Amino acid sequence: MVPFGEVSEIVLKVIAAHILGYFNLDADILPRIERPAYAYDVNRQQYNAATILKALGSMPFHDYVKVIGLLEVDLFVPIFTHVFGEAKQGGKYALVSLYRLRRNSDGSTPPESLLLERAAKVALHELGHLFNLLHCMDRRCLMYFSGGLQELDEMPFYFCRYCSKYLGDSLRSHGINPTPTK
Amino acid sequence: MDEKMSIMIVDDEMIVRESLYHWFKKYGHVVETASSGHEALEKLEKLPFEVLFVDIKMPVMDGIELLGKVKEEYPDTIVIIITAYGSIHTAVKAMKMGASDYLLKPFEPDQLSLVLEKIANQRKLTAEYQYIKGRLEAITRFDNIIGESPAMQAIFDLIPEVAHSDSSVMIMGETGTGKELVAKAIHARSPRSKGPFIAINCGAIPDTLLESELFGHQKGAFTGAVHTRKGFLEVVTGGTLFLDEIGEISPRMQIDLLRVLEDKKVTRVGEREPIDLDFRLISATRRDLEKEVIAGTFREDFFYRINVITLHVPPLRKRKGDIPLLVQHFLNKYSHETTKQVDHVRRDAMEVLKRYDWPGNVRELENAIERAVVLSRSRTLGIEDFSFLRPSRTQLPGPRSLRETERDHIQHILEECDWNVTGAAKILKINRVTLHKMIKRYNLQRPQ
After folding, report:
1. Which of A79, A122, A143, A144 is the best mutation test for B, with the most CBs of B within 10 A?
2. Least enclosed by CB within 10 Å: which of A127, B185, B257, B274?
3. Are B147 and B322 in contact (CB under 8 A)?
4. CB of B110 within 8 Å of any CB in chain A?
5. B170 or B142, higher pLDDT
């Protein structure tokens, strides 16, 4: 995991613990790199996720199967107003933004535990895409697309049995022994 | 969404195409992109796409123009308009032209998910509608007889009426018009529908064999009759006997059949005791038997016995309005049979099919579609796929000489009379010798 700029240490550790628990993968927390000023869009006052992913792709992460970048800034892709995270299906790099997870829909601040939960869910979802999982129709599955915080909060930590199966197959094809999902 | 869709994204901005491409891929959809309206139309010609996401603002062909073309050529394709330059005016115009929805860039990720859910529901409803429509058609249509022209509607109206009587029916029509299908439809709707339907092509069987086929024979009745064999007249009991090309049977067979129809009894060859018969006769011919009766080449009493009710099946050239319907029917049939995804005929190709005279009628059209589907490498059939069609008389260009017209007319009459020179000479009101000379002069040859 690569933090871009200032990212809370506890968030990084919680995500790493969830990746180990659900993917049976050790997640290293790499030294932070600079906030990606090159991806800032002045008109939208947001950061372009596609530009950051491209930059990540040019960095030397040869020792890692997958790389997740964590940011405190607001991310967008050109067609959408915002995204919580972004990953290319079956790719190597993903992004998770904590920006919108830090405030509730009514503008209030969520308790720290809820923020950690949200961050872990988005990270697991994006990592699922990197292991080729598709969006799922089961609202209770972590691979269900949640466009809003309410849906994200209602979603349990759970991969449905189909996504668990696909994830297991995908992990095995990467030479990783999957543990049973919780 | 329960099922994956085939989606094409049409946008001149690569970043938009890529964003949407990756987004849809995350749902497992089959996704293609096009950077212009022309590229989209080219790709649509090769492969069907269920949903198109189209940007309005594009150079050369804008999204509205593309929407118009897509809705004209592929009306079932769902089009979603996307634009950053949206206005109520453009949105209304797009929706009026058949767009299913309208999205303003940038949109909430949730909005796109909602649009996809709506499309999935729409597809489900369409699939249900198509299924119910298909079931209804299967119930209401007359087997494979397709047509909405007044001439065919008249036949459809007549079939149930004719079916419920037990009178002999004569179906007249050129070769390939579907006379046997009409006969089958009459049988299927008649009180005899649970009995057999036996079809015999009288023109294809030699007279002696036809006699044996119809009347049957007793063991030892003639050399080779090693078993007693029931004739079709006996086997068809309770059902319908269809005698195709009845104009081809010999005068002797006409007498034999006339007796059977009058007595409703038959005696097997080599046997004495007659057997009671119970069948309904439907016969068909492409010849003008009334003229042959007048000419004395066909028995008048037999003609009136088999011709209590007459149905005329029109040639395809006289119901060209049915061609698109027939084409679609055969496309569905052969796409299904060959598992090739060919489901569309370009407008210019359809014009060619409508202009062609179809001397072999619906059968020729069916063969043409089958051949085109088998050989096509695209989902859309174009003019080039029908280059094998013989140019019809009506298609010949420009002013023509008297000599050319005479030659074509003689050829036409000869084909109408199945190259019976005597019959053709009668119609042309010239003697046979003259006609033979003309055939030689114009080097006319009977098609193989």
Report:
1. A79
2. B274
3. yes
4. yes
5. B170
Q: What is the pLDDT of residues B200-238, one digit of tens each?
A: 998 888 877 888 788 877 777 666 677 777 888 888 889
Q: Please answer yes or no on whether B82 and A50 come within 8 Å at the CB atom.
A: no
Within its chain, how far is the Cα of B384 from the centroid? Answer: 20
Say yes or no for a CB contact (<8 Å) between A80 and B26: no
SS in 3 state form for chain B?
A: CCCCCEEEEECCCHHHHHHHHHHHHCCCCEEEEECCHHHHHHHHHHCCCCEEEEECCCCCCCHHHHHHHHHHHCCCCEEEEEECCCCHHHHHHHHHCCCCEEEECCECHHHHHHHHHHHHHHHHHHHHHHHHHHHHHHHHCECCECCCCHHHHHHHHHHHHHHCCCCCEEEECCCCCCHHHHHHHHHHHCCCCCCCEEEEEHHHCCHHHHHHHHHEECCCCCCCCCCCEECHHHHCCCCEEEEECHHHCCHHHHHHHHHHHHHCEECCECCCCCEECCCEEEEEECCCHHHHHHHCCCCHHHHHHHCCEEEECCCHHHCHHHHHHHHHHHHHHHHHHHCCCCCEECHHHHHHHHHCCCCCHHHHHHHHHHHHHHHCCCCEECHHHHCCCCCCHHHCCCCCCHHHHHHHHHHHHHHHCCCCHHHHHHHHCCCHHHHHHHHHHCCCCCCC
Residues of B in contact with A79 (CB under 8 A): 16, 19-20, 23, 82, 105-107, 112
Looking at the partner chain, which of A79, A81, A82 has a beta carbon nearest the beta carbon of B19? A79
Chain A residues 136-155 within an 8 A CB cutoff of chain B? 137, 145, 147-148
Structure tokens at B179: 């006379």
Q: What is the pLDDT of residue B151?
A: 83
Q: CB-based contacts of A125: which residues, under 8 Å, 6+ apart?
A: A85, A142, A143
Q: What is the ipTM of this complex?
A: 0.76
- The letter for the amino acid at A80 is F
Q: Is A145 close to B82, i.e. CB distance below 8 A?
A: no
Given a contact cutoff of 8 angstroms between Cβ atoms, the answer to whether B202 and B245 are in contact is yes
Q: Which of residues 74-103 of B touch A (CB under 8 A)?
A: 82
**What distance in Å separates the CA atoms of residue B14 and residue B23, rounded to the nearest whole number?**
14
Catalytic residue among A117, A126, A151, A154: A126
Q: Could you confirm whether A154 is annotated as catalytic?
A: no
All residues of chain A having their beta carbon less than 8 Å from the beta carbon of residue B106 are 44, 76, 78-81
- Supply the pLDDT for residue B394: 46
Q: Which of A44, A79, A145 sits opposite B16 (nearest CB)?
A: A79
